[in-house]
Fold this protein.
Amino acid sequence: MNHDSKLLIDKLESDGALSSGEYLALLAGNRPETAQYLFERARAVRQRVYGDEVYTRGLIEFTSYCKNDCYYCGIRKSNQAAERYRLDKGQILECCAAGYDLGFRTFVLQGGEDPFYSDEKIADIVRAIKKAHPDCAVTLSLGEKNRESYEAYYAAGADRYLLRHETADENHYGKLHPQEMSLQRRQQCLWDLKDIGYQVGCGFMAGSPYQTNECLVADLLFIKELDPHMVGIGPFIPHNATPFAAHPAGSLELTLFLLGIIRLMLPGVLLPVTTALGTIHPAGREKGVLAGGNVVMPNLSPLNVRKKYMLYDNKICTGDEAAECRNCLAGRMESVGYRLVVDRGDYKAVKAI
Ligand code: SAH
């Protein structure tokens, strides 16, 4: 292994941060032996904070309608071929009840930005879930809203909010999104969410079109500054009916390397190994946990809508019952020495040592 890379990894572990130039050098030095060392250190850190526990969240994809037109996303509004659906409160509660019986203690409501669900409707759904399952956490992932809306969901009982910033480089942001969307607005949403009191998750796609190592450095610096409770990172995967259909998927190696870096930057962070990672490699999620990940988010959406929430091509697990998914993941985690637990899986605050 390159001596400098090892020093950078050691420094990242002890300080929880590097300079821009050092991050660039670390990213440029991503070779198998360097990556193995990074993952070893990331595992040691996650072991210290979370032991061998892997948290689960039941993902409920409750609407495939979206008013936005992000170039990478399969449910963008311009995709006329996308099949659209909405789940009502009763269906969402059924998903939660089934999930609860399977051992889920966090439910994630994710969807396109769908104005059909007014703030009152969302707050009502959140209240109903918390009433039925007071021992569970509710995570929302509904995109950009104004501060008052976020406050209303929080008052209704929502605990966490996932909003990937997508890229912290202004120019890159403009290549992934139409003009009416802005990085500044998205980042402001994250600051608002944090200020309100949510456990907050940002994140981005590894290997998205036009992403450079400089963009990744901007992402790492922003993540350190925001100091979020969760970071969602998965590979970009092209969707055939989007402007990025012909772009290559992000690589397993890059995604894993970034997971390892983020674990060292934020020792207590909740770091999901994503479905997208399991889609680009059959053992992607196992490798993700071995690189520092500690959360899995299997799908609890009803089977008849699963194939309609296609953000990218070839998404896995769209035909499996929630119970099968949970058992399958439990086995996968055990195969690499970790175990799924029945737990809300809250953030544990720790300082970098
Ligand atoms: N509307 C919500 C949820 C978006 S979907 C929001 O704005 O936050 C959740 C995440 O899926 C996105 O943030 C994006 O990073 C990811 N995603 C979308 N298209 C993708 C693709 N083609 N490949 C991989 N990930 C994708």
Remarks:
- The chain has one domain: 37-341.
